[in-house]
Amino acid sequence: MHTPRSHSRPPGSRRAGAALLALLSLAQLMVILDVSAVNVALPDMAKDLNLSGGQLGWTITSYSLVFGSLLLLGGRAADLLGRRRMFLAGLGVFTASSLASALSAGAGAFFAARAGQGLGAAMLSPAALSIITTTFQGPQRTKALGVWGAVGGAGAAIGVLLGGMLTELIDWRAIFFINLPVSAGVLIAARRAIAPDREPPRWSGLDLRGALLATASLAAVVYALSQSGDAGWTSAQTLVLGLGGLTGLALFGALETRTRTPLLNVSRLGVDGSYVPDVLPGMVIAGLGLGIALVGVALSVLTGAPAEEAGMLSGLNTTGHEVGGSIGIAVLVSVATGSAAASPTALAGGIGDAFLVASIIATVGGIVGPLLLPTTRTFLPKLKAAPPVSVH
């Protein structure tokens, strides 16, 4: 079995490793700051760029939409084209777009420059994290990922403070101008600190079909969510784009399992896998989502119900949970064992099929739920008027 070689070599010393981590974290901090820092400067931007109320959201959306929808492609490109190459190229695109943002004289140019920043960030961010995971090993990797997570968590708060200070003391354009010297320093240091890519770029293995489908689908979902406040959660725009994006993502997942070099390698859990690293993370996420869904359904069913019908509706809610769970277990067990022979390999494949069926059912529920559950406009007044629950 061929094992791909790492594109980065372990740091020669703890000091070199700490310097590399600081460098990559600084680049990631720039990416995060340019989201929250802009929020503080919106009034000044609107005045200088003649932005209308409906255009204000695009100062954020034009960045986050491109950034979020291209992350999968950026991550896969880092694997195939080289992590160091992608990091440096993304840093260059981000820096040039920051300069264009600072020099923008109108809304169109500014939004285009912000989209360019999102493109650079989508190239830079996954490459930087990939360099961390391939450079640091064992406890050092754990610490490095902890620092990376802390940067992400603190970046939003730092961005608000920095954006406010720069806007108040200088001008909103300073939010983007400040990226230039920081990027220059990171670029100079990165060329020395990050080991060169050992392999030539592999353009032929880049799944452009999957990238196009994933990018378009994610863009549709992000756009639908970002514009739902103005268009409405039940508007045709939100529903069509949201459901279309989710359908596209489901199709993307199906196509990736049949692609020779997929953009996202959906590899099923093998027979030699273990529960804690391979199964538990997904189960925790699924349990969190299930808990939120159950609370939401219970509130929707019981809020505003007449007192004489509370018991009936409570029984109905619990019946759906228990009976649905029993039916679901029966169906999924049948799927898991239906094609499984005595061999562990066949059983592992059957369990994978059961999880796939469960994900399809959950996706259908996520699509149908917003159509059947009460809207915010009708639900919140009932929730506010609902009598407090007494505990005996």
Task: Identify the notable features of this structure and list them briefly.
mainly alpha, 392 residues, disordered N terminus
Structure in words:
The chain is built from 17 helices and no strands. The chain is mostly helical and 392 residues long. Helix 1 packs antiparallel against helix 10, helix 6 runs antiparallel to helix 7 and helix 6 packs antiparallel against helix 10. The radius of gyration is 25 Å and the shape is globular.
Topology:
Blueprint: H1 14-40, H2 42-49, H3 53-56, H4 58-69, H5 71-81, H6 83-103, H7 107-135, H8 138-169, H9 174-177, H10 179-193, H11 208-226, H12 228-231, H13 236-256, H14 275-302, H15 310-338, H16 344-372, H17 376-385
Strand content: under 5%
Question: What does the main sheet amount to?
Answer: none
Portion of residues within helices:
over 70%
Terminal CA distance reads 64 Å
Short synopsis of the structure:
The chain is an all-alpha fold. The protein is built from 17 helices and no strands.
